[in-house]
Specification:
heterodimer, A: about 160 residues, mainly beta, Immunoglobulin-like, 9-stranded antiparallel sheet, two-stranded antiparallel ribbon, about 45% strand, elongated, B: about 250 residues, Porin, 8-stranded antiparallel β-barrel, about 10% helix
């Protein structure tokens, strides 16, 4: 019965706080240089090696809603491109076998993390993966930052010009 | 006493059932944390407005003020060959009974304003009736915690969001049981334990004010009356966990 006493006390103190601005950067699995403020939506990205041989990478997206109402979030609104050793630019797409990645709304003050697979039309060794996040939060009046690119750095990928 | 145990079991049933359901749900073994490879959850399950459920689970402290004179009580003495009798409310010789207890609630929004749910609670008290004796038996007060008041009701209500506060108007429709433990002398002279019970319909309008202590947590103060027993009152403080931030609307 001890939990019963802790339950009201914890609730009175607000034991489940909402998202606070820039909190997405506190996680080492995303690169703080990828941070984007899109009005209500804040988002930061990280890349890690692919889990499947046919994929280019796994994209880690951390995001939070700084507003007191839901805000739009659409990973399909990001334009992904890869650059191979010859400098050819080719589009990357999200691997979504269950067609579950589409426009949703981040609940008020909520935070989230999603990891998706990125794949090129043909398996290639990439020297950069670039993101243009202009369409990630449809309806946002806040202008997105410019496109940015992740480049390999040892086992990791990091945002570099 | 048997009725009391039965009432408590009915009240506790949802508490027992909920963890079992949760356990059954957790039997899925996740294969990966990557969308497409995950088998137990979908993209957006933990953060999206669309895939959150506007459910509310609450627990609280309540206090009720009952007027026993407005009720007719049925009495039972003993377990073997129990003696049954009736007692008018005035025969308890008490103006009011006050109790304190817990209540629990599960509710969900059917649209942005209206919600439905179930509320159940149990409260205890210590009463000191001065009985006007019934004709059939002699009864006397039993000291200690000798009063139990249980409610189970469906809830319908509406919420007006006011930023950090919400105002709610709701009605509880259900049953309430009030039971006073007594001692009584059967016709053979034996003193045995018994009870005076009142089972009644409950139609309780309530006014509540919520304070959002976090996006998914509220602290509420509420007060209500009883349409069938207008002199009855109840009030309480409750704490709730909400499945959807600010129940979907802050203003």
């Amino acid at each position: 019965m001890r939990w019963l006493a802790l339950f009201p006390l914890g609730f009175a103190l607000g034991c489940l706080p909402g998202y606070s601005s820039h909190a997405v950067n506190a996680h080492p699995d995303v690169d703080a240089r990828s941070f984007q403020n899109l009005g209500c939506l804040e988002v930061a990205f990280g890349l890690r090696p692919p889990a499947h041989d046919t994929d280019a990478a796994v994209l880690i997206t951390r995001f939070g809603n700084t507003c007191l109402h839901p805000t739009a979030f659409d990973l399909r609104g990001i334009a992904f491109s890869g650059v191979d050793r010859e400098g050819h630019v080719l589009p990357l797409s999200i691997v979504d076998p269950r067609a579950e990645v589409h426009l949703l709304h981040v609940d008020a003050a909520a935070r989230g993390i999603e990891k998706v697979r990125l794949r090129a039309a043909a398996p290639l060794e990439l020297t950069a993966i670039c993101l243009n996040v202009a369409g990630i939060s449809p309806g946002s009046s806040h202008p997105p930052g410019p496109p940015f690119c992740f480049r390999p750095s040892g086992e990791y990928w990091e945002v570099r010009p | 006493m048997k009725r009391l145990v039965l009432a408590l079991l009915v009240l506790a049933l949802p508490l027992v059932a909920l963890p079992r359901q949760a356990h059954a749900h957790s039997s899925c073994h996740e294969q990966s944390d990557i969308t497409g490879d995950r088998v137990c959850s979908r993209f957006g399950d933990l953060w999206s407005h669309e895939r959150s459920f506007p459910l509310t689970l609450g627990v609280g402290l309540t206090s009720s003020h009952l007027v026993p004179a407005a009720r007719n009580w049925s009495g039972t003495l003993g377990k073997d060959n129990p003696v049954r009798f009736r007692l008018p409310g005035q025969a308890l010789g008490m103006r009011s009974i006050d109790d304190v207890g817990f209540d629990f609630r599960m509710s969900g929004y059917v649209n942005r304003t209206l919600y439905l749910g179930i509320d159940w609670g149990v409260a205890l008290g210590s009463v000191h009736p001065t009985f006007a004796q019934p004709a059939e038996v002699e009864i006397r007060n039993k000291s200690g915690i000798n009063f139990v008041h249980a409610k189970i009701a469906s809830v319908i209500g509406a919420r007006l969001p006011l930023g950090p506060f919400s105002a709610r108007l709701e009605a509880l429709i259900g049953l309430q049981i009030a039971s006073v433990t007594v001692e009584g002398r059967k016709p053979n002279g034996e003193w045995v334990q018994g009870s005076l019970n009142n089972l009644a319909f409950l139609l309780e309008p309530r006014v509540a004010v919520d304070l959002w202590t976090g996006p998914w947590t509220t602290m509420t103060v509420w007060g209500g009356g009883n349409v069938f027993f207008p002199a009855d009152r109840s009030m309480g403080v409750s704490f709730a966990l909400h499945g959807r931030a600010f129940d979907g609307r802050y203003f």
